[in-house]
Design a protein that fits this description.
Shape: elongated
Order of helices and strands: HHHHHHHHHHHHHHHHHHHHHHHHHHH
Oligomer: single chain
Strand content: under 5%
Helix content: over 70%
Largest sheet: none
Structural class: mainly alpha
Distance between the termini: 145 Å
Number of helices: 27
Radius of gyration: 61 Å
Number of strands: 0
Length: 678
């Protein structure tokens, strides 16, 4: 190894000292022969040395120049020493090892016992699992039996409960008062009676033979008791001044189950109660309507007679007619006027006769007609709903109202043949139509046939009176009617008012037959007017007479057209606009009084004019004539509104309404817009 070191020192540029040269080491390796040298093979040694080249331990040993054999002997010596030391350690620990061996042997014995025990447990558990399965099957079988027994018990309990007659129920049915508890008990009795009558298995049971006689006695007792109770309540309806509706709602409906019980379990007694109620209400309501009609008849204002026709001459021709009011002053015969308000008050409460009579008020027949039928609708609605809920039969209502219908028919049949008021008849036709709509909205059909019958009876009478007006014009003695006066003739004023009224009442209905009849009337009055004009000797007077009459007709039509939409404005201008608002008077005009008129006009004047335009289009077959009337009406509206605006300027604080006033130029622009359409 020293030679190697020296060799390394003499060659400084070669491999460093601390790096081992395997080639040099192998070159110095001397292999000694021994007895086993024949078995030793050095094949592969070089490869193994190459693989150990990078091993730190091997490199460290070889770097020190130690021979492998010497190193091997050193290692063997060390191993031998370690072995001897280990033997000494085992010898020292021999007692502990013996003790550990004994412990392991004991544990092994214990574990063997536990294995035997657990094996026994496994066998027992298998046996228990089999027992559990058997118990489970038994449990399921018992559960099924229990379920069947519960079902049987439930049915048996239900049977016993349904068929048994408790003493408490007997006491209540026999001795109890008819109240809420009695009704509940009556319901229980009803269920028991149905149970024994419906189920065939129950009829075959022996228990029924014991219970059925008792149930029958209870049924008879209950029927007798509730019959007396209901009849007593019905008698209260006959007492004067009884509020029938309150009695029905608060008393009778509370015991409506009694009727159901009688209907199911005693049809004969139910029919008796039904007949008693029908008889009672028939008489009571008939008496009420008869008394109401008699009171209304005292309030009737006669409008027209058979002589009040358009073409009838007004001058008295006998002593008997001298005291009668001149027809030409009785504008209500032909003009609609405020009579139209009845259609706006269609659903208002009925008149109370004694209040109106105390005020000495009289009304046209259409007002009484509306009031009577309003009472009829309300009474019929209440009774129809009650009969439906109490008896469950619509036929009860019709049997009850056979009496009231007869009373009203008797009255109407006495009034209608003596009615010569065509405007009133048309108003009644429109009232009936509105009442039909009201009943339709209520979804109450009980008056459908009656209202249809009244409507059918009104139309022929109206046609008859209309034809009488037509005949009065066609057959008029124009020589007697003629007056040496070029101003509008009163016959033409009647015609204008009459026509305007019918046109107004036909706007929303568009009755073609009525329009045809009005055309016939126009032709008749035109023919009469020409005859009257020819009575003037001068052609100029004839033309002036015709112009005045036609102008008056247009004026009436335009006024009627305006009144429909601006009645409050027109009424105020005609009655108050001429006053001095600042003059001291009992009731000076204030801004608050005028403000609603101004705001109402501002909010809907354009829409109202559009409606007027539509009315004219639908009402007049002659388009140019209709548009001329519309133009005249709009011009008159402008004059009314101008007067109102001027009046407001004279009111203290009237300038506060300037923001709501419609400018005159705006109204004129609207008028010109409709003027351009023709």
């Amino acid at each position: 190894m020293s030679d190697v070191a020296e060799n390394n020192a003499t060659h400084p540029n070669e491999t460093p000292k601390n790096v081992f040269d395997f080639g040099a080491f192998v070159g110095d390796l001397i292999v000694e022969e021994d007895a086993s040298s024949d078995d030793i093979s050095l094949e592969g040694l070089q490869q193994e040395l190459e693989e150990c080249k990078n091993d730190d331990v091997v490199a460290n040993i070889l770097s020190k120049g130690i021979k492998l054999r010497e190193y091997t002997k050193g290692v063997e010596n060390n191993l031998r020493q370690v072995e001897l030391d280990s033997i000494q350690d085992y010898i020292k620990e021999s007692d502990n090892l013996v003790s550990l061996h004994d412990q392991i042997r004991d544990c092994d014995s214990i574990l063997s016992q536990m294995e035997t025990l657990l094996s026994g447990f496994q066998v027992e558990i298998g046996s228990i699992s089999s027992d559990i399965k058997i118990l489970q099957e038994k449990s399921m079988d018992m559960g099924l039996k229990l379920k069947n027994r519960k079902v049987a018990e439930s049915k048996l309990a239900k049977f016993v409960e349904d068929i048994i007659v408790p003493p408490r129920m007997v006491d209540i049915i026999v001795d109890g008062e008819v109240n809420d508890e009695y009704l509940r008990t009556l319901d229980i009795l009803s269920k028991k009676l149905k149970f024994v009558e419906v189920d065939p298995m129950v009829k075959a049971s022996k228990a029924l033979k014991d219970v059925q006689p008792e149930l029958e006695k209870l049924r008879q007792k209950a029927v007798s008791k509730v019959f007396d109770f209901i009849v007593q309540k019905l008698q209260a309806l006959r007492k004067p001044k009884t509020n029938i509706q309150i009695l029905q709602q608060n008393v009778l409906l509370k015991y409506k189950y009694v009727i159901s019980f009688l209907k199911e379990h005693s049809k004969e007694v139910y029919n008796e109660v039904r007949a008693a109620y029908i008889d009672t209400m028939n008489k009571v309501l008939s008496a009420h309507f008869r008394a109401y009609i008699q009171a209304l008849e005292k309030l009737q204002l006669d409008i027209a007679t058979s002589n009040d026709m358009i073409g009838v001459e007004t001058r008295s021709t006998s002593l008997f007619s001298r005291g009668r009011e001149p027809l030409k002053n009785r504008s209500a015969v032909f003009a609609l006027g405020e009579r139209l308000n009845i259609l706006k008050e269609i659903d208002q409460p009925a008149l109370i006769p004694h209040i109106a009579e105390a005020s000495s008020l009289k009304y046209p027949y259409e007002v009484l007609f509306r009031s009577l039928h309003k009472l009829l609708m309300d009474t019929a609605t209440s009774e129809y709903l009650f009969c439906d809920e109490f008896f469950g039969e619509e036929s009860v209502f019709y049997e009850i109202f056979a009496g009231p219908f007869a009373v009203i028919d008797e009255h109407f049949n006495s009034i209608l043949p003596n009615c010569y008021d065509a405007i009133g008849l048309m108003l009644m036709i429109r009232i009936i139509h509105q009442h039909q709509l009201i009943m339709s909205r209520r979804r109450i059909p009980c008056l459908d046939s009656y209202l249809d019958k009244v409507n059918i009876s009104l139309w022929p009478r109206f046609k008859m009176i209309f034809d009488m007006h037509l005949s009065s014009l066609r057959n008029a003695n124009f020589k007697l009617l003629w007056e040496d006066d070029i101003h509008p003739h009163y016959v033409m004023r009647r015609y204008a008012e009459f026509t305007a009224s019918l046109i107004h009442l036909n706007v929303e209905y568009g009755d073609g037959q009525l329009e045809l009849n009005m055309e016939r009337l126009r032709m008749a009055v035109d023919d009469l007017l020409m005859k009257l004009a020819k009575m003037f000797s001068k052609p100029k007077l004839q033309i002036v007479f015709l112009i005045n009459n036609y102008d008056m007709t247009i004026a009436v039509l335009k006024e009627e057209l305006l009144v429909e939409h601006f009645s409050d404005l027109i009424k105020f201008v005609k009655t108050r606009a001429s006053e001095d608002p600042n003059a001291s008077s009992e009731r000076p005009i204030t801004v608050a009084e005028v403000e609603p008129l101004v705001k109402d006009f501002a909010s809907r004047w354009k829409a109202a004019i559009e409606l007027m335009h539509k009315d004219v289009i639908t009402s007049f077959s002659n388009f140019l004539c209709g548009m001329e009337i519309l133009r005249a009406a709009l011009t008159q509206l402008l004059l009314y509104y101008t007067r109102l605006s001027d009046f407001i300027k004279r009111i203290d604080g009237g300038t506060a309404l300037n923001k709501d006033l419609v400018s005159i130029s705006s109204i004129m622009y609207e008028i010109r817009k409709y003027s351009r359409t023709f």
